[in-house]
Design a protein that fits this description.
By secondary structure, the chain is of the alpha/beta class. It has 2 domains: 4-110 and 234-246, ATPase, nucleotide binding domain (Nucleotidyltransferase, domain 5), CATH 3.30.420.40; 123-230, ATPase, nucleotide binding domain (Nucleotidyltransferase, domain 5). The protein contains 8 helices and 14 strands. It has helices at 42-56, 90-97, 108-119, 164-168, 170-175, 180-198, 213-216, 235-246, and strands spanning 4-10, 14-21, 32-35, 62-66, 70-71, 74-75, 103-107, 128-134, 138-144, 147-149, 158-159, 162-163, 202-206, 226-228. The strands form 4 sheets. It has a 5-stranded mixed beta sheet. Helix 3 (108-119) crosses helix 8. The radius of gyration is 17 Å and the shape is globular. 48% of the residues are buried. The mean pLDDT is 95. Bound molecules: beta-D-glucopyranose.
Length: 250
Amino acid sequence: MAEQGFGIDVGGSGIKGASVDLTTGALTSEIITIPTPQPATPAAVARTAADLVAQAGWTGPVGVTLPLVVTAGIARTAANVDSSWIGSDTHAVFGAALGGSAVTVLNDADAAGLAEDKFGAGSDVDGVVVLLTFGTGIGSAILFHGQLLPNTEFGHMQVDGMEAEHRAAASVRTKQQLSYKDWAAEVSRVLIAIENLLWPDLFVAGGGISADADQWLHLLTNRTPVVPAKLRNTAGIVGAAMAAETGIRP
Ligand code: BGC
């Protein structure tokens, strides 16, 4: 197994990348952040990723996260990113921009789930772990003994007649100026809907709002334990580097 990998996490406002120690999950370089080009088309994002890798001086396999469903390398959705991603061959797009480096592309929440399950909040759990990222939307990942079931999209599940991420994304709390109590009630409805179908052993709550976990986790009323993500803003980078190492191509 390679000792180090490189992960790039593509978000709505920033593209972040760093090298990662694959045996500990620790970053081995500073995070380089470049603003996400607007519009965030495949070509523009891939060029930015290539700039980032060049700045880091990395040569080797690269893992990249995107906030969309990717099956056999093809982007299938584009919630919260430029719609021109849909149908694009993500491996070809990044591979060309990165001068032929081996590139592995996966969903952003799936990457965070891989990293949290191995090195973070899920590492002691011997069962089914569901990670949810609360941000502009809601991302999801299911893991069982380190194996990822890729491309779950619980953020788009209908919960009492409304999409889960329209109820309980972190952005909904900000836009509607909800108190933590009111927002947590919506999060609970989403968690209950998921746990009634999957019976996970643990939920890991990720996304920026997990930094304020002490203000809202205790307000949740679902039955499965919920813990905050541990790796915080590095989970996507670490998970991307892990996926590139294994070459898992969802
Ligand atoms: C997308 C997911 C993504 C999540 C977090 C959702 O809107 O459909 O693919 O993982 O946002 O970025």
